[in-house]
Structures are given as structure tokens and as C-alpha cells.
Amino acid sequence: TFEITENGISCPSPIPLRVFDGAIVHMNDKTRPSESSEIIAPCSIQGAILEKGQTDEITFIARKIGSHRIEVFASRVGSKLDSVIELRDSDGSLIATGDDFEGLDAKIDFHAEEGEQYRLSISDKRGNGSFNNSYCLEIAPIQPTVTAFLPRRDKRSQARQVIEVPSGNRVLAYFGIRKEGTNAPVSIGLTNLPSSLRVVAGTEQP
After folding, report:
1. Is the peptide bond before 141 cis (omega within 30 degrees of 0)?
2. What global pTM score does this model have?
């Protein structure tokens, strides 16, 4: 994340910036890859569902063999797209479909085989299309990750995403831990707190 400051005034919250290590492919009318071009993952595919009923199709192969993730970044960054993705092998057989993983954004995890050519399609679930239906579609090997979060029922809401401590009192808060690709133990701690606050944190519960 980074902060924007102008005339000594900073924005109230940091601006997220995503960095991707891989090729960038643009899927629009002027730079759309030809059917003969070869897309090699890891890659980030930028495009938009411009017309009603439109489906973008991408053919790719994986540089590395093993577990890969196909993930759409659209709704969570302000796009109107309600994404649905389908993955097929070179024979056209359906491997998996993805829908509503992170909000309205879709995801597929799959095992990439050596020399296999995959066909990926992305469309709007409601059949809509416009310049506001843009997307970023990332295909890359799955990396081990650990994420700590404050649990909430509504992922689109900011409710209960701040811990308020009454003056002279205490508060109990629950942290969630999400691990992918690792079973390493996790302990939780908070840093850079005011000197008047003290935190007693436990270890991860199995």
C-alpha cells in the first residue's frame, strides 16, 4: 500500500497497489492476441466484457507443472463485472468452473499438466456488457500464504473491522487465520500501539 499526500494532508487510508510477476496480456479490440499467439502462465490478462452476451476466450499453457490458481480481479476493484470463468482442456472437456470466490470475483484452482494447452473463458453472469465491465485475470502457481483477519459476516461491509477499547477497560477480539499451502504454526501480535495499551494474544487454535 502507499499513501497520497497533498499540501500536507494525507488520504484517510492507504491505497492498495498489486504487483504481479509475470507477462501482461491485453484483451481489447486493438491488441487482442491472435488465435495463433501463445500465452504462457504466469500471466495477467487485462480486458473488458464490452457487449451483452460477450465471452472472452484465452488459450494458454503453464510454464511450471503443478498447482495453479486462476483468479479474477474485477468487482473488488470497482468493476461492474459479475464474473464467471470456465476452464477446459485441449479436447474441450470441462475441468472446472469458478464463481463468487471474493465477492463477485471468480477463482479456479487446478493442477497444470506438462505440455497441456488449456482454454479459459470469462463472461458476465448476468449477460451484461459495458466499458465498466473490466477485469484483470491472473494465472499463476499457487504460493504459500498466511492471512490474519477480523471475522465478519458481510465481506462487503466494514462493520467490526475496527477494535475499540474503552478508556480504562478491556476488550476481547477474535482473529481469523487463513493458510494456503502451509501448515506452519501461527502466533498473533500487534505492534506500534499507544503506550497506554497492552495486548495479550494467544496462539493459533487447531
Report:
1. no
2. 0.72
